[in-house]
Amino acid sequence: MVTLTKDSNKEKIIAQYWPQISRAASGYENRPALSDELAQEMALSVWRSLDGFSEQCSLNTYIYRVIHNTAIDHIRRHSRLSEDELDGATLCERVSPEASALQAQRQKQLLIAINKLPLSLRQVMLLKLEDLNNVEISDVLGISDTNVGIRLHRAKEQLSKLLKGLN
Amino acid sequence: MDNNEFEQLSSLWQSSEDKSLPHMEKLLKRHKRQSFILKLNILIELSAILAVSYLLLLSFLENMPLIKQAWIGFATLWGISLFILMSKSRLSSLKHLKSAQLSTSLEAHIKLIKNEIFRWELSIKATWIFAVAFGAFIGSECYFSTCANNDLLHIGLSFIVLLVAQVFFVRKGKTAQKVLRTLTD
């Protein structure tokens, strides 16, 4: 068994999961400065929580659980008042110069739509977009498979409508 | 939305550019600084309680007028009660913060926000009680002795401070309620 408590191992895990952390932060927080701060909080939580990892679930599930609960903690402390006032102009502009304008535009629209989803639907959607299956999502969020299925169905419906509205 | 469309969305989502990787050492230092500030706040409150308790003791030793003794006694009792209730709620929150639960359970967050709402409501009630007692003390002072213009200015300022604090507590309480609704949604 690999010891996760060593700092070098922890750093490797953070680096490995950084893309997922980064995207989850953007999905939960649309304000650029706070989104960066949230990503850092998530990394710190993962770092601190690795000591408590006792293989009760897979490391992947455990880390996603920590990431998504840190987002909830962030919402609790920073009270997402801007949630309903989302404005495309305030979104994190994370588009590389190489990316095509169309790709950048679609990414931006997807981010706007995701940020407009209610929290319960946004959670399942963000995990599904990271290719987690329903069982893994239910493990991360601590809800039943059936509940995941229902939420996911609703989330997809709402996301479709939101994306159509943005096009 | 069919599976194919969703897969496209998923690849689009995963192709977003990452933020720059943080320096963990700096983050850990910042975390330590925050817990130091939390402890410092508790220490400041405790010092204020000790100072008021000392004043109460002094008022008895120096045989101050009964009204003053009653006022200092009330302020001490008010401070100690508030400190105990707040600390109890804070300890409960700290227990949740220290446990691994916070990273893994939504229930822990709901409990934390409920604790926070309790503290704001407590602050609102305590400020009302303090304002009423302060008003009674001032009233009796003016009735039994005299009130100078300068005193009235200080009293007015004190009430304004209490009012501002009350508005702050109410707003914070409402925000916390809003967050609780978001979490339980």
TrEMBL record, chain A:
Keyword tags: Sigma factor, Transcription, Transcription regulation
The keyword Metal-binding is annotated on this UniProt entry: no
Residue ranges of every copy of the RNA polymerase sigma factor 70 region 4 type domain listed in the record: 110-159
Stored InterPro entries: RNA_pol_sigma-70-like, RNA_pol_sigma-70_dom, RNA_pol_sigma70_r2, RNA_pol_sigma70_r4_t2, RNA_pol_sigma_r2, RNA_pol_sigma_r3/r4-like, WH-like_DNA-bd_sf
Biological process (GO), any one: DNA-templated transcription initiation
Domain RNA polymerase sigma-70 region: 14-80
Taxonomic superkingdom: Bacteria
Alphabetized GO MF terms: DNA binding; sigma factor activity
Family: Belongs to the sigma-70 factor family. ECF subfamily.
Protein name stated in the entry: RNA polymerase sigma factor
Lineage, highest ranks first: Bacteria, Pseudomonadati, Pseudomonadota, Gammaproteobacteria, Alteromonadales
UniProtKB/TrEMBL annotation, chain B:
Protein name (record): Uncharacterized protein
Keywords annotated in UniProt: Membrane, Transmembrane, Transmembrane helix
Transmembrane intervals: 36-57, 69-86, 126-146, 152-170
Domain of life: Bacteria
